[in-house]
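queue> holo job accepted (zinc ion)
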Amino acid sequence: MVSFAAWATLAGVLALNAGPMREPDDHSFGTPEHVLVNHLDLTLDVDFAAKVITSEAKLAIERTSQDVSQPLVLDTKGLAIQSVEASADGKTFAKAPFALGKDDPILGQSLTISLPEKVHSVTIRYATGPRATALQWLTPEQTAGKQHPYLFTQSQAIDARTWIPLQDSPGVRITYTARVKVPEALTAVMSAARLPNRLPKGEFSYEMKQSIPPYLIALAVGDLEFRKLGPRTGVYAEPSVLTKAAAEFSEMEEMVTACEALYGPYRWERYDVLVMPPSFPFGGMENPRLTFASPTVLAGDKSLVSLLAHELAHSWSGNLVSNATWRDFWLNEGFTVYLERRIMEAVYGKARADVEAVLGKRSLLREMAELSKPDQILHIELKGRRPDDGLTDVPYEKGALFLKHLEAVYGRVPLDRFLKAYFKRFAFQSITTATFEKYLEERFLKYGIAKAIEANAKEWLYEPGIPSDAPKPVAEALTKVEAHAKAFAAGTTAAADLPAAKLSTQEWLHFLDALPADLGNARMAELDKAFSLTKSGNSEVVFQWLLLAIQHGYEPAYPRLEGFLTEQGRRKFLKPLYEELVKTPAGKERGIAIFRKARPSYHPLSRDTVDGILGWKE
Ligand code: BES
Ligand code: ZN
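queue> job finished
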């Protein structure tokens, strides 16, 4: 008889021959279990007049199953495919038959390419289409300098396929090179190392040697300049923004060093940040070697740099160890929020990190109350849905809370040791929630069954709600602020008597958030007069204030509301403000009037979101 152990070993060996175990990805047509893409050579020609990228993508591929009849299946969305060639040796290419599948509104179209038995690479010539949601083409007026156009990509979660035909699954990792041609006055930057090749003006050459998931391929083209911050850190921005950006991010090198001390070496050589035009739909995007950041984080006083800590932390959680499918998104974001706060603690002190943790949990509890039970689960079901549906506080804040809970159960030092080992063990791999769970069990088994029960991983990962023994972060500073908000709302404190000068940005946010929606306009005016909130230059503060202003119908803030909704396109700000506006008929009318003007300058992602809120039809 064959023992169970022997069977298990045998099964393990068989699994190995079949390539790494893959969880199916509901958001990709690809069949990497048969034919796998592992490298990409891109040639891009960026045409601002036509708003089209014409491109040649050469994909290095390998068979991963015995079945040599299997074709190569790629993801595409709106691409105009011009030709496809395949090669057995990477030298001689012959036309390969191909077919585009049925168009799915979320996933796009599969591109199925027939292959010879022996394969080495495939070359696809194509052009991007008008609905390439990864691309935003900006007119000169939409930039800081107003002189040159600008283009940037945003590939996460499943939009890489709108500019590159690929196996667009985070479970498929590739290395890449790119040759980019742009107008002579402009600079192209990518999530890769710039090669020092001598090239004609307007041509750039990039290489990413570390394997990454396709959602991390990124390009930006504009009138860009660079300033060095530290030995391996720097900032890119339009010339007029550069000085402000460099001042705001002056602690970047220190953040990298702090994270390395906690979780092991920084594996990407350089860490630079590109400050985006204001229509960038996110606060930040962790493109490897080159974070893209919204200019709305340039508060002038470093009060919003936790965003930088967040995107930097993704260099470990997300980019080095990536979620294998979008169901596992919490592995990226929950870990990253936890790391972000550890960086903030190391560089700015515990009080600051605690405040962010309290605000995070508060936001989570509030959002959780509105979410369906299935959407409260870390390992979320997203089949048939957009991965964006999973973009709630659950992966971010519930995920981070789970790690904080593990910290409480096992101790900070053992958890840090675990995380450091985790990043080393799974470096440059994409993993699922189940793989994480198994590793957690293995590493913490030695602490015994009682601790395992206390860790309660199954409930955290697979059940809705927040377990009753979840950490309860507290920050003394915020408790005080709540008391001030209460006293002000009750009328026992006047605005002039609030200790406003001493409040940090985060305390201000909490104060405004703790105010009721029925203060009355006289008290709103009193606050505004005392603290010039309508004129605040801090995007987070003005956002929180404008929410209150809409709730109160506080007219003096309306011009600023219109300005704020027109001048920047960060979805996190647009969504709640428009949602607040549509709650009343007058508000909805105002929202529509503003949107009519602002819509052309919004990014497609933000535009879609607001279209939905306002029921807008073109
Ligand atoms: N990777 C995310 C942004 C993202 C997620 C884009 C999913 C597309 C799909 C990024 O790291 C992020 O989380 N950004 C946050 C900021 C952060 C401090 C919470 C944002 O943009 O608000
Ligand atoms: Zn993130």
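queue> The first helix runs from residue 4 to 17.
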